Backbone:
């Protein structure tokens, strides 16, 4: 057993974090959300790092590492709010040509719940992946029509409502659908864990700088305890996300479904609560469009709905405990 | 990263499992919480079996009579012990987890040869006399005085919340040896035999209604200077050396207990009905169970991270504090759910109808021991805010 990142894994995370800081500054992140703002060359740079093919075997053009490494990469991406269909690209790498190097951009819809057919990053994408209980289907985005949302809740995540599901070419059976749902859920949870760390960092920096009553607001215990709780939630989220990642690689160690549902619960709570704390710590500035606090909160809201709701995850964990 | 056992860990696990099966079966039924002589001899019996089998002081260095096991092996041992429903460390807690490691790190050769074996065999029971009526979270403000008089310290003052004091042979004590120094600097660490004249132990009744801890009234107790551990006035540092002994396994026993209580709560809610359906059929109950279950799994993973880091030679700053706060929060949340599920059955601290209802009530109350004992949740939050996040001190 060893549930701390190895030196290589720490270096990988550092590399992604440094790349994100350099090439996905917050201005770039914001511009990705604007109409036509998706920058394909920047996306290709991200792909060239091996980001999407991290756990794809080398003979299929990937980096040949384990799924836990993809999890760590997504955590780092989430901490920096890197935009775009990161989960879809990671799932489709090694399955659909061109995704791994960023020349083909995929988006994804997980069919299951009722309601409008909302797809993120649809206009930036070339292909649409459709997951349902029977399997995974592939369509060209050009073959689907839809209406773009004028004011997506997360300004860095454009959303389109499809008029209907297009005809697809079947690329995988129900086993692939199940695997993608599990992995997609965990990659989103990894981003949530990273998001929770990112908003905490932003809040702590502000709490050290901003002064009221003649001293930094971070010296007030009311804020200290809020921020300590944020840090603890992140560590809890990380713990369960990492354990779930390793469980995918080593299925004999426990229930994959319980680990994944549990990771969703702890990471969604960490991200949404920590971002709320981040807004609160910023005072009036936190209520502005200009300060990034709301971007963490809104991205967290997007991610926590991907591949199933929080309530579904809670029921899954309960049922899997009860039938143990 | 891995969760599976390495080859040698897998062998260790099966050896431990094999031994536990026979050993646990040979234990008598445990005594009741207020039967201190009974508890003492029960815990000593188990400790002796561990000692004879080479499992005592599992994480202690071999040169001091321990097994010198890795943190991972320690975790495996605790996991298997819980699975086998083996007795826990009981009244051996302070000796094995705190006083023994402190003496190993800071004691003289005479202290080591006099005390370590008795802790390992279970013959010597220790308690911890740190807290005082006026000094809890602000422990360094403690006032129990020790004057030097020839070859003795003459100790007077009062200690409180001293767990297992009624059963203890020795007390690890913090005393003030220099009242003129800054508060952290005038403190010394003493070994106080509990049978010395001038010690009055008065049991305190806890919220459970049992006598888990006590007050110590100390009236000119003459403790030999030879019982000073570390240098005079260096006791604050000595009290903290056990931190470097902490390899992430400190709360594993508690976490295992909590996980068992959680399973019992699930079984109880499946077996009990309200308004014509089982309690388990209530979505809101099930979802709360799911959240708590996810937190317990996260706490296990957090433990494994800390143990992994411990195996590399040290803990990440704040990880012990963070774990403790999260664990206390989960324990309280589980207790709240238990009371909701129990409804009117929560009026009894005794089990009802062959179900573990009283145990669930006890578990809710026990949550406070975790959020208060060993540095409260608020103190841990202060530590994280200042030492991990680097926020400015309040004053
Ligand atoms: C079950 C149990 C077993 C124990 N066993 C032992 C033992 O064997 N030996 C021993 O020496 N001690 C023992 N203790 C004592 C324990 O360490 C103290 O109770 C604890 O450190 C708190 O001190 P206090 O009780 O004086 O509370 P106080 O320090 O008076 O705290 C009261 C409240 O004020 C808060 N508070 C205090 N200071 C601050 C601050 N700076 N910032 C924010 N909030 C603050 C606390 O969080 C708490 O909510 C035990 C306690 C319990 C509950």
Residues:
């Amino acid at each position: 057993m060893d549930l701390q990142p190895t030196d290589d894994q720490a270096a990988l995370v550092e590399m992604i974090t440094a790349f994100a800081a350099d090439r996905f500054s917050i201005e770039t992140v914001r511009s990705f959300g604007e109409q036509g703002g998706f920058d394909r060359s920047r996306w290709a740079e991200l792909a060239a790092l091996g980001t999407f093919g991290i756990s794809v075997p080398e003979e299929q053009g990937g980096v040949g590492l384990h799924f836990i490494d993809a999890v760590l990469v997504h955590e780092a991406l989430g901490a920096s709010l890197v935009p775009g269909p990161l989960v879809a690209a990671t799932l489709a790498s090694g399955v659909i040509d061109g995704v791994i190097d960023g020349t083909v951009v995929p988006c994804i819809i997980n069919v299951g719940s009722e309601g409008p057919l909302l797809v993120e990053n649809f206009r930036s994408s070339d292909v649409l992946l459709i997951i349902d209980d029977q399997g995974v289907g592939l369509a060209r985005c050009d073959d689907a029509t839809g209406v773009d949302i004028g004011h997506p809740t997360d300004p860095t995540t454009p959303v389109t409502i499809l008029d209907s599901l297009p005809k697809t070419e079947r690329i995988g059976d129900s086993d692939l659908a199940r695997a993608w749902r599990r992995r997609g859920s965990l990659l989103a949870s990894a981003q949530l864990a990273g998001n929770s760390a990112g908003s905490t960092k932003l809040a702590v920096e502000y709490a050290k700088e901003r002064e009221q009553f003649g001293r930094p607001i971070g010296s007030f215990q009311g804020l200290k305890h809020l921020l300590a709780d944020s840090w603890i939630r992140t560590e809890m989220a990380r713990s369960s996300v990492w354990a779930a990642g390793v469980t995918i690689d080593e299925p004999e160690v426990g229930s994959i479904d319980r680990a994944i549902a549990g990771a969703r619960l702890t990471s969604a709570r960490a991200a949404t609560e920590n971002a709320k704390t981040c807004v609160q710590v910023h005072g009036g500035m936190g209520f502005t469009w200009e300060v990034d606090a709301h971007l963490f909160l809104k991205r967290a809201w997007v991610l926590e709905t991907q591949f199933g709701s929080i309530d579904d995850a809670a029921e899954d964990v309960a049922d899997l405990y009860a039938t143990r | 990263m891995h969760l599976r056992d390495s080859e040698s860990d897998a062998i260790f696990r099966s050896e431990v499992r094999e031994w536990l099966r026979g050993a646990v079966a040979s234990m008598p039924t445990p005594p009741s919480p207020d039967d201190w002589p009974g508890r003492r001899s029960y815990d000593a019996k188990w400790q002796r079996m561990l000692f004879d089998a080479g499992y005592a002081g599992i994480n202690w260095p071999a040169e001091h009579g321990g097994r010198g096991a890795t943190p991972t092996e320690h975790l495996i041992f605790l996991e298997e012990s819980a699975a086998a429903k083996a007795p826990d460390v009981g009244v051996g807690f302070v000796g094995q987890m705190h006083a023994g490691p402190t003496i190993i790190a800071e004691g003289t050769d005479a202290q080591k040869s006099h005390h370590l074996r008795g802790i390992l065999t279970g013959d010597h029971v220790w308690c911890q006399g740190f807290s005082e009526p006026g000094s809890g979270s602000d422990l360094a403000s403690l006032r129990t005085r020790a004057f030097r008089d020839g070859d003795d310290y003459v100790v007077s003052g009062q200690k409180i919340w001293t767990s297992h004091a009624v059963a203890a042979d020795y007390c690890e004590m913090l005393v003030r040896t220099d009242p003129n120094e800054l508060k952290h600097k005038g403190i010394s660490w003493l070994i106080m035999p509990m049978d010395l004249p001038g010690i009055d132990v008065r049991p305190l009744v806890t919220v459970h209604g049992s006598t888990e801890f006590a007050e110590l009234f100390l009236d000119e107790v003459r403790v030999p200077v030879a019982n000073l551990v570390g240098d005079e006035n260096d006791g604050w540092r000595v009290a903290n050396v056990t931190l470097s002994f902490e390899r992430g396994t400190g709360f594993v026993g508690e976490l295992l207990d909590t996980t068992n209580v959680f399973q019992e709560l699930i079984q109880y809610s499946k077996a009990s009905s309200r308004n014509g359906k089982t309690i388990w059929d209530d979505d809101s109950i099930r979802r709360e169970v799911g959240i708590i279950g996810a937190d317990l799994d996260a706490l296990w993973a957090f433990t494994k991270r800390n143990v992994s880091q411990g195996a590399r030679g040290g803990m990440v700053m704040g990880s012990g504090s963070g774990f403790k706060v999260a664990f206390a929060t989960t324990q309280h949340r589980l207790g709240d759910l238990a009371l909701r599920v129990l409804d009117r059955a929560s009026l009894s601290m005794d089990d009802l109808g062959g179900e573990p209802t009283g145990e669930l009530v006890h578990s809710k109350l026990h949550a406070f021991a975790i959020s208060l004992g060993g540095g409260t949740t608020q103190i841990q939050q202060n530590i994280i805010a200042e030492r991990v996040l680097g926020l400015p001190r309040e004053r």
Chain A has ten helices and nine strands. Strands of chain A lie at 106-110, 117-120, 127-132, 135-140, 146-148, 159-162, 169-172, 211-212, 215-216. Residues 32 and 38 of chain A are 5 Å apart (CA to CA).
